[in-house]
Amino acid sequence: MGKFLLVTIQVDLYDRLALNLETDLANMVNKTGARGVLIDISALSIVDSFMGRILGNIGTMSKIMDAESVVVGMQPAVAITLVELGLELKGVSTALNVEKGMQLLHTKVGSFEDEEKEEDADDNSIE
Amino acid sequence: MIIVLSKDAMAIQKEQDVVPFRNRVKEYAVKIGMSLVNQTKLITAASELVRNMLKYGGGGSTLIEVISKGRENGIRLTFADKGPGIKDIPLAMQDGYSTGKSLGLGLPGAKRLVSEFDIKSTPGKGTTVTVIKWKNG
Ligand SMILES: Nc1ncnc2c1ncn2[C@@H]1O[C@H](COP(=O)(O)OP(=O)(O)O)[C@@H](O)[C@H]1O
Ligand SMILES: [Mg+2]
User: Fold this and answer.
1) What is the pLDDT of residues A50-75, one digit of tens each?
2) Secondary structure, 3-state, B46-62
3) pTM of this prediction?
4) In this complex, do A77 and B40 lie within 8 Å of one another by their Cβ atoms?
5) Domain spans of chain A?
6) Which residue of A has its CA nearest to B46?
7) Chain B interface disruption, residue of A12, A46, A57, A88, most B CBs within 10 A
8) Which helix (DSSP H) or strand (DSSP E) does residue A86 occupy?
9) I need a labelling partner for B108 at 20 to 30 A (CA). Which of A4, A39, A49, B97 fits?
10) Which DSSP symbol is given to A39?
């Protein structure tokens, strides 16, 4: 899975840890040259405007670093609450689960498929 | 008439207090049998208000009460700080208004997420926000 990063947010994070997530991810994308970031938030029991902004920032940051990002696994109660809170999560792509998120990421970075197939062949990796 | 069934006070001084406070609110919401969606709405509103208290009010105190009115049970949360207060409350209640370079959704969003919302503020003295979420509200 060389070209995608999978980030699972395991617990409700303290603010500073959530902010660290933003910089850690930027560094990881930079270091690995990942083309896609998948953020699994299925363990988050709430998303308030603070966490929402971080998810949005990660999306923007990924774009700037030429990577796509998808947020997956948002609990239905969280999604319902976000609408009423008024948080639009602009620029954040979402998918139901990790599998669907992967598919979406593949589509989003699809235009680079040929190039990557060549790389894969060089690495002798199995898809 | 509102009857108070239980009271639990918790001081909020630092960002590490936010998650334990949210968990405490959840415990009470679960105890009275609030639905998951209503719990999530209440806890999200609580998170917004407790963050405001930290960011703008320099911390403060919270009160979690289990209340009952007629046949309906609910949770009442009070957030009180002795910070700078809010000069123009209608302005602060507008979507997108923020003096902290954030989204400006905390106050108006919290109001939408609860059953009853009350804010009182005196410039130079502090701010108190009280919300109620009825179990089936
Ligand atoms: N407890 C408080 N004490 C002083 N000012 C506050 C307090 N809570 C909110 N405010 C003011 O109201 C504004 C709007 O708050 P809010 O809707 O939560 O948005 P945000 O937190 O993104 O700024 C804040 O920017 C701040 O100026
Ligand atoms: Mg706020």
Assistant:
1) 999 999 999 999 999 999 999 999 99
2) HHHHHHHHHHCCCCEEE
3) 0.91
4) yes
5) 4-126
6) A48
7) A46
8) none
9) A39
10) E
